[in-house]
Design brief:
The complex is a heterodimer of chains A (about 725) and B (about 325). Chain A is built from 26 helices and 20 strands. Chain A is an alpha+beta fold. Chain A has five domains: about 150 residues; about 50 residues, no CATH class; about 120 residues, no CATH class; about 180 residues, no CATH class; about 120 residues, Orthogonal Bundle (Isoleucyl-tRNA Synthetase, Domain 1). In chain A, the strands form seven sheets. Chain A has a five-stranded antiparallel sheet with strand order 2-3-1-9-10, covered by helices on one side. In chain A, a hairpin with a 2-residue loop joins strand 5 and strand 6. In chain A, helix 18 packs across helix 19, helix 22 packs across helix 26 and helix 23 runs parallel beside helix 26. Chain B has two domains: about 200 residues, Bira Bifunctional Protein, Domain 2 (BirA Bifunctional Protein, domain 2); about 110 residues, Methane Monooxygenase Hydroxylase, Chain G, domain 1 (Up-down Bundle). Chain B has nine helices and ten strands. The N and C termini of chain B lie far apart (about 45 Å). Classes of the chains: A alpha+beta (about 725), B alpha+beta (about 325). At the A-B interface, helix 9 and strand 20 of A face strand 4, strand 6, strand 7, strand 8 and helix 9 of B.
Chain lengths: ~725, ~325
């Protein structure tokens, strides 16, 4: 059994791409080994650092196993004359390397042929890898790649500088991008002296570590976590703030990580924590430190890509502190400069800030959002009388004003947050009473929430309304322009915006109609310059509905863990109201396993089939509400009709009140008469009158369920048929 | 490090010396306003075409909107870049770059260096590349870019561009918190600080850029430069275009007189490019003045881009014909 080592050495790979590429390389090599029969199941260990991705596969055969094969030659009639081999047979035997006496005949569908049983030699592993590995390297996916050699023969994430390919102790002489593989690698840029040479594949990790590179994510993460902990122990009561994204980044930016703790002047703590943390995390990649009470402490932790001595640490600390000080001074400078104008003063400045080139400025957007927000607020007040419409109105006007501030121009990721902070800070100058300032500020602060699946929705109802109106305005404009997300293309993050709307409506329990929201949103564009550029107004309603249905489906399945069939069933019965759909889905999910509903699902499927077939056969002209029943002519039929008559009004009321659990409990009682009906009654009776009566009854039964879910979509595996 | 850290001009001299030893042409700064060293024809035009080239130069870079009246210790209307172009880059280009840091007195064993992804794109130049920002103890000191496209043309060979932020590096080496405190030179007159040399620039140009520049005049200038640049590009195209075969049944049109070899070689594309740079700078000025409305902005960027692309195409043609 042999080991195979492949290391691709490059210039620094972008941190965000390392993990994916490493996984992909391991998968590709593993699949290749199995496909080429060099092992039954691949044992592949993956390694990576900013300058390399590598795999070590163990348990390889030295060569493919030989294969017994039957090769066919000329037709038997040609090959043998009077039982004697002809010239053709001799030539064939020679070609495939067997004695003429060993030739046999084989009969196929096309006729009889001379045949030779040969043993095809398996190819040596080295030869196969040499030929096939370069193709796998070339096929690696990079979010952004480049070319570097004249003539642009290949693309890769960054110039590839060395290759190591060893089968045990032998070099596999493969070649990619003009580089021949060898046994030499490189260690850490600064700490390692001279090349790293591998005598055999298996010693990869050990040798690379000796060259000051920790060659896996897990090792570096562990080292960094421990170093962060150790650094914190030098400050009484301090803890570093866990930050998965940041940790990911620094793990992928370092080969030999170490940590230093630095400090900053306490006076900067008067700046909002949001600003300080953003500067540290996003701009400097520092971890923030908090004291025992969870408050920000005047320290930071920097992860270095080197290990240096005490003098070196002092120099690096000093340098990092200097940079952070300048950054904080800048932030304070911007904060102070921004106070020259209040957010209100900045409203007019929004005219020069582009929202989207076809849709106009942020000033235009603010006025649209203000109107849409008002309409939405009015609807929300019906459910929540304490909702403060005035707060939404004022917040919408000033929500985007922070885009004109120096602080947001510098730290764009703080948009919204800065607006919220400034509003409260400037409340007096804008003559806003304290209580409404807090509410307006919070709504502005939260307007971009939720920024991801994990992020929280806006805290207040007013914030929720503003956030929904803002996002709906964006989606409406883009859809009307025909710029609809498709596949991986969603440059304006409209899916995220729509996911945000769905979640916000659900979590704030706002039972509003999505189609009305989006129609109202489009109406705000009436008479604007943008309207003239709209190309997709005719299909707007349909496109928006389909888009939100997908988002709602995603929400129910991914965020709420509702099974796909229940999701489909529920959305088939209506996807216009998030709260309603969610409640129906949860209610259906609760009963789907019950014996009654397993049976009911099967029955509904049957009903639908019968009705569909009847319609197709022209025997069921369509649902006719005024259809007059003939007298039911069996007990089963009468029982079902009675039960349905009793239930339908009641269920309708319960659904209107969104008491779906109760509605379903009531609907469960239809099971017995329904089962009985199917057992005893033949729907497609000869007599037309009888048949139509029965079909109409089924239609009625089906309709009762339709307000909650299309139960025919619910999968009932292995249960009642 | 030496006993005294490098002065501002010693820093420049060390870099000059280092890159001269690598065979770079030591060019002087372009004498037209530009926003970055990339815009100098020594980069923008030289990277086009197949001819290898190595060049290094200081480029004062004007960004009107970045001015702060000399009040912000970290921001300047005009900062200085040290620009190195290596076409095609040697395989050890990163190692060479690290050597250059040693040459300016940075002991790599006692500092933290990281290459962090940072891709570059200049819409007005139809240019882009991939690369890194080089971080030294948390400070971005250099943009390291592999150019892939310039003037809308794929580069072959591609080239490496190193852009050192001179003020940042000098402030780091001298350990001062304000750019204006950087020692420019030490002499019999004592220390001359950056502020003494440059503060008036910052104050006055900030005032001009933000308050006084005559918006109507700027638009006029821009239109004039643009028209002239366009005119030159059109003349070049007309003088070099292959005559189209006449359509069936049409009389062959008399072809425009073609350039002779010497007319072609002497055709003023370098001046045309200067005119394009003028437009780019005027765009930046108008932007700083807040004079470009939302609807205009994209269009104006496109206008400058058209000039840059036009010149780049013509330049490639001129170079190939001359070869």
């Amino acid at each position: 059994m042999a080991d195979f080592l492949l290391e691709i050495g490059t210039e620094e790979i972008p941190a965000r791409m390392i993990a994916g590429a490493t996984e992909e390389l391991a998968r590709r090599v593993g699949e290749l080994l199995v496909r080429e029969r060099l092992c039954a199941t691949a044992q592949v260990e993956a390694f990576s650092s900013p300058r390399r991705i590598a795999v070590l596969a163990t348990g390889l055969a030295a060569a493919q196993p030989d294969v017994a094969e039957q090769l066919l030659g000329p037709g038997a009639a040609h090959a043998f004359k009077d039982g004697q081999p002809t010239q053709a047979a001799v030539a064939f035997a020679k070609k495939v390397g067997v004695e003429v006496s060993e030739l046999t005949t084989a009969t196929t569908a096309k006729g009889s042929y001379v045949a030779a049983n040969v043993l095809r030699k398996g190819r040596p592993a080295s030869e196969l890898l040499c030929e096939l590995i370069p193709k796998e390297i070339a096929a690696l996916y990079w979010a952004k790649n480049m070319y570097w050699r004249p003539g642009k023969p290949e693309r890769f994430v960054r110039p590839l500088r060395w290759l190591v390919a060893l089968l045990d102790s032998e070099i596999v002489p493969l070649e990619f991008a003009g580089i021949k593989a060898g046994r030499e690698s490189r260690g850490h840029r600064i700490l390692s002296t001279g090349p790293v040479t591998f005598a055999k594949a298996g010693e990869y990790a050990e040798k690379i570590r000796a060259a000051h590179v920790l060659p896996s994510y897990a090792e570096r993460e562990l080292k960094i976590r421990k170093a962060l902990d150790a650094a914190c122990r030098t400050i009484p009561g301090a803890r570093w703030r866990e930050d998965k994204g940041l940790l990911d980044t620094v793990v992928q930016l370092t080969e030999a990580p170490s940590v230093i703790v630095g400090g900053f002047d306490r006076e900067f703590l008067s700046l909002p924590e949001e600003v300080l943390v953003t500067v540290m995390r996003d701009h400097q990649k520092y971890f923030a430190v908090e004291d025992a009470d969870g408050k920000l402490a005047p320290y930071f932790l920097a992860v270095l890509n080197t290990v240096t001595d005490a003098e070196g640490e002092a120099i690096v600390r000093h340098g990092n502190e200097r940079v952070l000080r300048a950054r904080f001074k800048d932030a304070r400078f911007f904060w102070d400069a921004d106070q020259q104008l209040t957010l209100k003063d900045r409203v007019a400045m929004l005219k020069t800030v582009t929202f989207q080139k076809e849709l106009g400025s942020y000033f235009d957007k603010a006025s649209r959002t203000q109107h849409l927000g008002s309409q939405l607020s009015a609807a929300v007040t019906e459910f929540y009388p304490a909702h403060r419409q005035g707060v939404v109105y004022k917040a919408a006007l000033m929500a985007k004003c922070d885009l004109t501030t120096e602080l947001v121009k510098e730290f764009t990721e703080l948009q919204g947050i800065i607006g919220g902070l400034y509003l409260v800070h400037q409340a007096e100058r804008m003559e806003l009473p304290e209580s409404s300032a807090a509410a307006i500020g919070q709504a502005i602060y939260d307007q971009y929430k939720p920024a991801s699946m994990e992020d929280a929705v806006p805290r207040s109802l007013e914030g929720a309304v503003l956030a929904v109106a803002d996002k709906a305005d964006t989606i409406a404009g883009m859809f009307a322009l025909g710029m609809i997300p498709s596949g991986s293309k969603d440059p304006f993050a409209l899916r995220r915006a729509a996911n945000g709307i769905v979640r916000t409506l659900a979590e704030h329990n706002l039972p509003l109609s999505l189609s009305k929201l989006m129609t109202d949103a489009l109406r705000q564009y009436q008479g604007t310059e943008a309207e003239a550029r709209f190309k997709a107004v005719e299909s707007y309603e349909q496109n928006v509905a389909a888009f939100f249905r997908e988002r709602l489906e995603f929400y129910l399945r991914e965020a709420k863990g509702i099974a796909y069939d229940v999701t489909n069933a529920v959305l088939a019965a209506g996807a216009d109201n998030v709260v309603d759909a969610l409640e129906r889905a949860e209610a259906v999910a609760r009963v789907r396993e019950s014996e009654d509903f397993v049976a009911i699902s099967a029955s509904v499927k049957r009903m639908k089939n019968i009705l569909r077939q009847a319609t197709e056969a022209g025997k069921w002209p369509a649902a006719d509400a005024n259809f007059v029943h003939a007298a039911a002519d069996s007990d089963a039929e009468r029982a079902l009709a009675k039960c349905t008559a009793e239930l339908s009004g009641e269920v309708e009321e319960l659904c209107k009140a969104r008491k779906f659990d109760e509605a379903l409990a009531r609907l469960a009682t239809v099971r017995r008469p329904l089962d009985e009906f199917f057992e005893k009654v033949m729907v497609m009776a000869e007599d037309e009158k009888v048949r139509l009566t029965r079909l109409a009854l089924l239609q009625q039964v089906a309709a009762m369920f339709q307000a909650i879910a299309d139960f025919s979509e619910v999968v009932t595996v292995g249960k009642a048929s | 490090m030496t006993s005294k850290p490098l002065t501002f001009q010693e820093l420049i001299l060390k870099l000059q010396e280092f890159w001269a030893a690598q065979g770079c042409v030591l060019q002087q700064p372009l004498d037209v306003e530009v926003g970055a060293g990339t815009m100098s024809p020594e980069t923008f035009l030289r990277v086009l075409g197949p001819k290898p080239y190595r060049v290094a130069y200081v480029q004062p870079s004007r960004r009107p909107a970045d001015g702060r009246y000399g009040e912000n210790p970290n921001r300047l209307y005009k900062h200085m870049q040290y620009q190195v172009i290596l076409k095609a880059p040697p395989v050890n280009v990163q190692e060479l770059y690290l050597e250059s840091l040693k040459a300016i007195g940075i002991d790599l064993l006692r500092h933290d260096i990281k290459f962090e992804e940072d891709n570059w794109e200049a819409p007005t130049l139809a240019a882009w590349g991939v690369g890194w920002q080089v971080m030294l103890d948390g400070l971005e000191i250099t943009q390291f870019t592999y150019f892939q496209q310039c003037g809308g043309i794929d580069l072959d060979p591609m080239c490496a561009e190193l852009t050192y932020g001179l003020e940042r590096i000098a402030a780091f080496l001298q350990d001062v918190d304000s750019i204006y405190d950087i020692v420019w030179v030490r002499g019999p007159q004592g220390e001359v600080k950056y502020g003494e040399v440059r503060l008036a620039d910052e104050e006055q140009f900030s005032t001009y850029n933000f308050e006084k520049a005559d918006v109507a005049k700027l638009w006029e200038h821009m239109a004039a430069y643009e028209a002239e640049c366009h005119g030159l590009i059109e003349q070049y195209v007309a003088g070099t275009a292959e005559p189209k075969p006449p359509k069936k049944g049409e009389e062959p049109k008399p072809a425009a007189p073609k350039f002779t070899a010497i007319e072609r070689r002497r055709f003023p594309l370098l001046p045309a490019y200067d005119l394009c740079l003028k437009c780019s700078h005027l765009f930046n000025l108008l932007d700083a003045r807040g004079a470009i409305s939302v609807t205009e902005r994209v269009g104006v960027i496109q206008r400058v881009r058209n000039l840059a692309v036009g010149v780049a195409r013509a330049w490639v043609d001129q170079q190939t014909q001359g070869a």
